[in-house]
Amino acid sequence: MPDSSSFFDADDPIFANKDLLRVQHLPEKDRIIGRDEELTQLANAIKDATHGQTPNNVLIYGKTGTGKSLCTKYITNDLVESAKQNDIEVGVAYVDCFQDSTETQAVRSVADALNLPAETNISVPMSGLSTSNYYRRLWDILDAQYDVGLVILDEIDKLDNDNILMQLSRATESGKLTESTLGIIGISNKIRYKENLNERVRSSLSERDLVFAPYDADQLRAILRSRSDAFQDGVLNDEVIPKIAALAAREHGDARKAIDILRYAGESAYERDSHTVSEDHVNEAHEREEQNRLSELISKLPTHSKRLLHALALQAQQHDKNDPEIPTEDVYSLYELMCEQEGSDPLKNRRVRDLLSELEFLSVIRQRHKGRGRGRGAHTLNRLVDESELVIKACKSA
DNA sequence: CCTCCACAGGAATTTGCGGGGT
DNA sequence: ACCCCGCAAATTCCTGTGGAGG
Known about the structure:
globular; three-stranded antiparallel β-sheet; five-stranded parallel β-sheet; 8 strands; alpha/beta; DNA-binding
C-alpha cells in the first residue's frame, strides 16, 4: 500500500480510468474496431424504425467476444437518438436469454425493460401472472409509450422454446399492437441455430443475417490499445498488449477475454506495488481469468447444482487417473452425504439427473452414456471440463 | 444369440410461491 | 380477507433399452 494517510485517497499508480476495461463499457464509435461493415449492415437493417416503421428482424451470429452485443447496443442507442429527431419514440429491450430462458421469464423481462410505470400505470410483477397476461401488458406498454419497440434477444439459442419468437414476430400483423410496431434482433453463438426453428419463425426472424468473425491478433491489439488510456501513462510495458492479443487470438479471438486479462494484469501489478505492468503480470492474469470465469458461472448456480458439482469434483480428485469419469450413482451418494452434513434435505435421484444434465448444457461437466447391463453400473459417466482443484475452489468460495 | 434388468429420461403430479379478482 | 390461478421446481410414476451374463 502507498504510504498515505488514508487507504483511499492515494492516486492510483496504475489505472487512470478503469471503467474503460469493464465489460459493460460501451465505447464511442471510433473505439469499435474492425466492425465498420457489420455496423453499417445492422444500421441499414433497422433504419426504418427512425421513421416509425417496422424494422427488419435481424439474426446475428458469432462466437463470444466478437462484439455482437456491443455493436447491437451501440447501434440501437444511436437509433433511439436519431428517431427522437423525427419525434419517433423507439424503445429498446435487451434480454439475456441465458438468464431468462423460459418464455414467461423472457416476456416479463421485455415488458419490464420497456415499462416506465410512472407513465403507463402498468406494473410488471416478478411472478404470479400467466404468460398471456405478461404479453398483454407488454402490448399495452408498447402502444402506450412507443412508436417502435426493438427487442434484443442475446443468447437466443438458450431459449427453451421459441413461442416467444412467434408471438413477437406476429404481434403487429395479428393486431396485438395498434399504435406501435416491433422489431427483433436475435444474437446467437451457434451458427446452426436457425436450422431447428420452425419455418414460419425462421423466415420472419431472419430477414437479415449477420455473421461476426472472430478477431485476429491484429484487431485484438488494436482493441486493447484503444482501451489503454484506462492506464496511467507509461505503465504498460511494450510487450504486454501483443502478448495478451496473442493469447486471446489463440483462444478463439475473444475480445472480452482479452480485455479481462488486461484488467487483471493491471490489478496484479497494483497488488504487487509494481509501477509498470509486465509480461509476468500477464501470465498471472491469464490464470486468474480462467479461475474467475469459472467462479462466476458457479456462483450463479442453484445451491444443489453447486453441491453436486462439488461432490463430483471431490471424487474426481480422489481418483488417481487424470480426467476420471464418475458414475452418477457415486456422485449422488456423496451428494447425499454432503447434504446430511449441511443439515439440508437432499434432492431425489431423478431431479439430480436433470441438474447434472443442466450442468452439461452449461459445459461445466461432460457426460457420456455408457451401456446398461445386468447388475452393477451407473450408466451415465460424468467428468469435469476444468481442473478439479479449480472447481473445488470455486464451489467453496461461492 | 437371447434375455432381462437397472438406469435414463419422458410424462403426470404435487408443492411452493406470488400475484390477481372479488 | 379470502380464494383461485399459472408458473417453476421437485417428486412420483412409468416405459424403453443396451449390452453383460447366460
